[in-house]
């Protein structure tokens, strides 16, 4: 009886076990499926959050690069209206480029997480307000670019978190030079702060319009009547009769152009309606773009002081004349673009200072193939490392489309009649020595000499071998 009971119990357990395992397996698979679904939902959710969050959006649009060991984050021209998150980048950025965006306000703590920044470029935005704590934590910042914005006022307190600030650009903002600007103006006028706020000018009130912030009398700012106060008081204020300070007629490079300091100092003056080369080109500018303006004439010493220039773009200016010494001082220039202008020839001596030039663009000019074009060809022969393009005859008709080098070569080969020598001429020399670069350069100098000073001369070439 005991054995029978035991067998029945064993059979009952065998029958019960599969259904139990199936239930357990179902619950297990259901639980694992639930876990898998939950994980998948989390991933999807995380993905949606990452794609919709500002950090991921900015990361996809901005570029990150390293130069000389410093990390550059380039967020220029990205239509951003706020500062990206510092957690976006794989490395801590040293230079943050936010130029040409749509940022309007810098809120307190806007740059939290960017404590390692050395430079911050915020030019060409729409910034009209900077809260006092906007730059909190930027203790290592040395360069801040705020030019070409809409700032009317700025407190000195906004600059206090940046004790190492050495370069501050504030020009091309509509500064309202009244009492709230007192502390900032006093800070800018401290002698040791000579690179802070240079070229920034007042836009209002009328009595201060055009005056540099560094030249405003800070003592009078808070003594003058409040322009929002009693209108009668303003009418009796004798300072209202003062004429605004006039701007200089000749454009200034720092206010007329856009200055970019990173990764190399660059001055963008393209399409600015300029009729002459602006003054005050900073000495550290490496690249300068003056294309698409109306500069018809380069005058002597137009680039004096621009000693660091490596590239200069003067294309598309309808330029007709380049004076000798107009490129004076550009000893380190590597690339010069003169294409798409109205040049017929280049005067003798124009290129003499360009010792290290390696690229010269000349296309799109109506080059006239007569004796005046020879200087360009001789200079290029004496500087074979210079790669040039676009030097084609536009006139006269018999040479149209011909290479200027070919024209000069044929000109020398044909040997004009006034240079031909009689077979009986005792001074006749070996024809193989005619038309050497040295002889041609001497003849060019003679041709360019004023006629009243020119005297008949005979050249004698003696073979030393």
Can you characterise this structure?
With 465 residues, this protein is an alpha/beta fold. The protein has helices at 2-52, 54-61, 182-188, 218-221, 231-236, 253-256, 374-382, 404-414, 437-448, and strands spanning 63-67, 70-74, 95-97, 105-106, 119-121, 129-130, 143-145, 167-169, 175-176, 202-204, 258-260, 266-268, 287-289, 297-298, 311-313, 321-322, 335-337, 359-361, 367-368, 387-389, 393-395. It contains nine helices and 21 strands. Strand 9 (175-176), helix 3 and strand 10 (202-204) form a beta-alpha-beta unit. Helix 7 packs antiparallel against helix 9. The termini are far apart.
Main beta sheet: 7 strands, mixed
Unreliable stretches (pLDDT < 50, length at least 5) are 11-60, 227-242, 418-455
Mean pLDDT: 78
Instruction: List the secondary-structure elements in sequence, H or E.
Output: HHEEEEEEEEEHEHHHEEEEEEEEEHEEHH
Largest sheet strand order: 11-12-13-15-17-18-20
Helix fraction by DSSP (H/I, runs of at least 4): 10-25%
How would you describe the shape?
A: elongated
The gyration radius over C-alpha positions equals: 37 Å
Would you report the number of β strands?
21
Distance between the termini: 139 Å
Structural class comes to alpha/beta
User: In percent terms, what proportion of residues is strand?
Assistant: 5-15%
Describe the oligomeric state of these chains in a short phrase: single chain
Helix count, DSSP H or I runs of 4 or more residues: 9
């Amino acid at each position: 009886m005991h054995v029978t009971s035991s067998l029945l119990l064993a059979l009952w357990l065998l029958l019960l076990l599969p259904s139990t395992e199936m239930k357990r397996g179902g619950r297990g698979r259901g639980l694992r499926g639930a876990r898998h679904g939950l994980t998948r939902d989390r991933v999807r959710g995380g993905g949606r959050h990452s794609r919709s969050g500002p950090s991921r959006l900015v990361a996809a649009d901005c570029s990150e690069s390293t130069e000389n060991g410093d990390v550059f984050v380039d967020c220029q021209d990205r239509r951003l209206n706020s500062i990206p998150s510092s957690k976006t980048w794989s490395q801590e950025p040293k230079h943050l480029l936010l130029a040409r965006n749509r940022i309007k306000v810098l809120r307190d703590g806007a740059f939290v997480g960017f404590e390692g920044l050395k430079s911050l470029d915020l030019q060409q935005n729409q910034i009209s307000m900077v809260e006092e704590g906007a730059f909190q934590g930027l203790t290592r910042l040395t360069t801040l670019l705020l030019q070409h914005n809409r700032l009317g006022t700025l407190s000195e307190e906004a600059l206090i978190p940046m004790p190492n600030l050495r370069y501050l650009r504030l020009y091309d903002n509509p500064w309202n030079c009244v009492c709230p600007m007192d502390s900032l103006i006093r800070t800018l006028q401290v002698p040791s702060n000579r690179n802070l706020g240079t070229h920034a000018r007042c836009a209002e009130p009328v009595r201060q319009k055009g005056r540099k912030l560094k030249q405003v009398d800070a003592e009078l700012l808070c003594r003058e009547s409040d322009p929002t106060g009693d209108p009668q008081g303003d009418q009796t204020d004798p300072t209202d009769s003062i004429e605004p300070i006039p701007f200089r007629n000749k454009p200034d490079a720092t206010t007329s152009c856009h200055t970019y300091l990173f990764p190399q100092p660059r001055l963008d003056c393209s399409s600015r309606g300029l009729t002459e080369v602006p003054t005050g080109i900073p000495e550290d500018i490496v690249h300068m773009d003056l294309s698409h303006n109306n500069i018809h004439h380069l005058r002597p010493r137009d680039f004096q002081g621009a000693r660091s220039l490596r590239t200069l773009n003067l294309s598309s200016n309808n330029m007709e004349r380049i004076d000798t010494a107009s490129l004076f001082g550009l000893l380190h220039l590597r690339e010069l673009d003169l294409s798409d202008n109205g040049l017929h020839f280049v005067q003798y001596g124009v290129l003499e200072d360009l010792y290290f030039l390696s690229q010269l663009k000349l296309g799109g000019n109506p080059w006239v193939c007569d004796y005046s074009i020879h200087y360009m060809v001789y200079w290029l022969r004496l500087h074979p490392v210079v790669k040039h393009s676009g030097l084609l005859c536009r006139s006269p008709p018999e040479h149209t489309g011909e290479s200027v080098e070919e024209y000069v070569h044929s000109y020398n080969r044909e040997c004009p009649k006034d240079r031909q020598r009689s077979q009986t001429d005792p001074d006749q020399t070996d024809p193989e020595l005619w038309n050497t670069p040295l002889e041609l350069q001497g003849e060019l100098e003679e041709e360019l000499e004023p006629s009243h000073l020119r005297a008949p001369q005979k050249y004698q070439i003696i073979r030393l071998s």
